[in-house]
Design goal:
The chain has about 300 residues and is an alpha/beta fold. The chain has two domains: about 1-25 and about 85-295, von Willebrand factor, type A domain (Rossmann fold); about 40-85, no CATH class. It has helices spanning about 1-5, 15-20, 65-70, 105-125, 150-160, 170-180, 195-210, 220-225, 245-270, 285-300, and strands at about 40-55, 75-85, 85-95, 130-135, 140-145, 185-190, 210-220, 230-235, 240-245, 275-280. The chain has a six-stranded mixed sheet, with helices on both faces. Helix 6 (about 170-180) packs parallel to helix 7 (about 195-210) and helix 7 (about 195-210) runs parallel beside helix 9 (about 245-270).
Length: about 300
């Protein structure tokens, strides 16, 4: 795998080695196919005690708690938390606005780094990885699987992803919610330039399907600061034409609209309880992922 990593511009072996110190964990119980490190909604074999329940004929006698029998004169069976693997579904926004960047990295460049690192880390701990590239529809998709060969296919898709066209992210997320049938960590990497109310409904749908939703909200520093000094032609990168304007005339309205939009996103995050990371693409992605991984590990009580 090390040789493979070196051929990918969006993977840095040194960064991956440092991030591997913290596991990628799910915030909700997962339903996997093999034993792993993540909590399952089912009972099974583990070192973590869950509860007692009354013995019923057919239970394994080795799980009887004889001390409980001595105290109560009743037969009880020990139940333990089952551990399983997870499914990581990367949802990569490939609409036209993801091709914007005022610095060395465009938003799609940054998104490739986030997706590539998460996919590698999940694969290394035995989890299944899949990816869905979206714009106004599902552009390309690979279902989650557990194998190094499949991970290379995911990386190939990341390499080939080209931003183009309009976005219909909320509608596509509804489709993802229905097509990913088993519980998964759904990591959305996007600039989230869509109607906030529609996005809230899509997040709720994903949560209703018991997916663990994480959103990496990518913004370019220029989109926040709007520090243009001379009349400029502004191009809609999703096919909506262009306007020529003096930034001085529209700066106040732009900043007001941006503030309202970010406030709406913040409200959605609080209501839906998704794992939200707002990022400017001049921030080192290693710091973003370390914050994300550590936050989840602390929430699960891992050390």
């Amino acid at each position: 795998m090390f040789t493979e990593r070196q051929t990918r511009s969006f993977l840095d072996p040194a960064v991956l080695a440092r991030l591997a110190a913290v596991p990628l964990v799910a915030r909700r119980p997962m339903v996997g196919t093999v034993s792993g490190r993540h909590a399952s909604p089912h009972r099974g074999s583990s070192v973590e005690f869950a509860e007692y329940r009354k013995y019923v004929p057919g239970d394994d006698l080795r799980r009887l708690d004889w001390r409980a029998f001595g105290r109560s004169d009743r037969h009880y069976v020990k139940e333990y938390e089952a551990d399983t693997n997870l499914r990581l579904v990367l949802v990569l926004d490939t609409s036209g606005s993801m091709d914007f960047g005022s610095g060395p990295l465009t938003k799609i460049d940054y998104a490739r780094r986030i997706c590539g690192a998460l996919g590698y880390l999940a694969s290394q701990q035995g989890d299944a990885v899949g990816i869905t590239c979206v714009a106004d529809r599902v552009v390309r998709s690979l279902p989650p699987r557990r194998s190094p060969v499949h991970l290379r296919l995911v990386f190939d898709l990341l390499d080939e992803a080209k931003p183009a066209g309009p976005t219909r992210l909320p509608e596509v997320l509804h489709e993802v919610a229905e097509t990913v049938r088993q519980r998964a960590v759904v990591a959305i990497v996007s600039d989230l330039f869509c109607d906030p109310e529609s996005l809230a409904a899509a997040f709720s749908h994903l949560r209703f399907r018991r997916h663990d939703v994480a959103a990496f909200h990518l913004l370019d520093p220029q989109e926040l600061a709007f520090e243009f000094q001379r009349p400029t032609r502004f191009l809609d990168m999703e096919g909506g034409g262009s306007i020529f304007a003096d930034p001085i005339d529209i700066a106040d309205r732009y900043q007001r609209a941006m503030t309202e939009y970010l406030d709406a996103i913040r409200g959605i995050v609080l209501e839906s309880a998704i794992d939200y990371q707002r990022i400017t693409v001049d921030e080192p992605y290693e710091q973003v992922l370390a914050r994300f991984l550590v936050g989840r590990a602390v929430a699960r009580g891992l050390r």
